[in-house]
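Exam revision sheet. Question 4 asks you to relate a sequence to its structure. Input first:
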Amino acid sequence: MVDIEDRLSLVYLMFFYLSVGMLLPWNFFINVNGYWMHKFRTVNATSNNTELNELQLEFTADLAIAAMVPNVLFLVINGLVGHRFRIFPRILVSLILIVVLFTVTLVLVYVDTDAWQSTFLIVTLATTVLINICNGIFQGGIFGLAGMFPPRYMNAILTGQGLGGVFAAVINILLLLVGDDEVGAAFYCFLFSVVFLTGSIVTFISMSRTKLFKHFSRSAAPGDQGGETNEKSALLTHSRTSSPELTVSVTAVLKSIWEEEVTVFLIYLVTLACFPALTVLVQSSATQRSTWTETFFVPVCCFLVYNLGDYLGRTISAQPCLRKPGSKLCLIIAVLRIVFIPLLMVCNAAPDTRTHTPILISSDPIYVALMTVFAISNGYLTSVVMVSAPRRVESHQQETAANLMAGILGLGLATGAALSALLVQLL
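Answer key, structure tokens:
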């Protein structure tokens, strides 16, 4: 028997590293909100003018749409036909292109764009579209690959995604604390992302050479539906015998995991409808302006609180000692999360420019509490359904199930992003 045990959990750690980089472009794009507000500021405005202009108000929603629509399109395509193509070239080429495109964003940081803000907006959104086409291919490939491994490896991806958001938020805050202005903070955030993603290329090439990768990416034998089996047993007993006669029915897989599919769609429809397009507009209700209210309130109370909560939820769900809720209960909780949309809309978002809806929640602590529950529920439910879905189908269908879940997650992201643009207009 070939020894395919994951010694020192190296492959697990490689999955974890890759997943941190999976959402790094998106996390840095939204965390450097001050940089975008500077780029799209009203150039000739007086120094005490704090009212946001049209470009500033709509940019985050535009960015979300430019990111999520191509991302979901290619996640869905990957879910439907990804199992027909080799995983290695899909992931490697998409990673290389992401690094190249993100370097363009890095170069533009210190370019004076005041005289061509509209053109800069188009360039930024076009670059975002291309990055997310590649990222959709990358994400879909990694999720599909993890779906063929024991459940622990899917947990590594989901937890790593949460940690990636925390990294982005913390790095941005630290750069602001040490005295960098918003433009300088954005430059170093983007530079870190380029370096980290370059490391992802090296990590993936290294992982592809391991016996464990070759074993699970070559074959998924039938009959192992036991998500409860321990990792070592799964690693040592998984057959390497290829089964060319086995076919994958996308329709059958969709029917088997429909509850998880609806749940993950609702999770991200609600999340992207509110975060970051709505929440980035929430201002501190403190009457006196200060460094806290002007510089740190949004990075801390919006981005850091959300990412910490999301990471906490994903970490809690990965604990084997905890009993996980069933698929029906997860679906019910996902439906209940819809209440966050009206609750966050009546917080202190864009108080100087909103005209259609009243501000009913002006308290900063209440807003932070809402964001915390909102984020923890997002991370927890995501991990539970993404891990359980591939375990509900035959082993040779697990890659397809994971691909489909990633695609439907992306569909929820895109739908939520589109809804966020409408909600901003309704403030």
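Marking note for examiners. Residues 49 and 256 are 56 Å apart (CA to CA).
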